[in-house]
Input
Amino acid sequence: LDVAGCFRHEGKTFPFRGTARGITHQPRRHDEPLVVEISLDGDTPGLLSLVVDQHGQQPRSRIVLKYPRLRRTAQQWGDAERLALSVAPSVAELVADLELVGNQIEGQIRCRQHSVELTPQVADRCGGAALARPLQTAARQIESLELVVPLRGELPRPRWSLKSNLGSQLAAGFNGAIQQELALRTAEVTRQADQLMQREFARCETLLGQQAELQQWLRFNERQVDEFKQWAIRRAGAPADLLGRELPLGDLFKR
Output
């Protein structure tokens, strides 16, 4: 049986078309299940598959809903006053696969976003730009997000949980960014320390050079004093000769 029609949701019209087989007014006596396959048209195309089997002790039903290109609007996760993550508009793939046996349901809903663009926002009191930089580096390394919601339990309130690969990817990227930032800071500190040591070595070499010149000058003047003493001793026997003669001081202190 071919089926076609449309339904309205939030003011929008969604056309559909498909097939249905295994229709009977006595489903418990019928060996074949009811199978309905619907193609959803419009801006958000999708596929719906419904299998209802009431043959046996407990009725069994399975529903599979697929949206291969589901448009996702911009979102913000977290607390903007502390730490938040903005998600730019993107396209996601949504698959819901649920099985119902009696009043027990089991299955999962999986949503996968490709080519995601994430922007972290960190308040100043929580780290500000110092924390936002490595987070931004980590966010740029994330190319896809996957969200899985497993369901299991009794209707109408089954147990469910939420699993995502965002945390592990963000943590790995953040650790890598921190290590890179630490390496850059270490290299910068090492470079500054090397420059400081080179300046101090140059200063020490200058001081040592000045000290060597001073020692040489002192040794030179000490030699001149010794020469003057020897000259004075040689002339000590003739005091009169010392008087009235000009001492050769000019020659002694010439370098």
User: Anything to note?
Assistant: The chain has a mean pLDDT of 77.
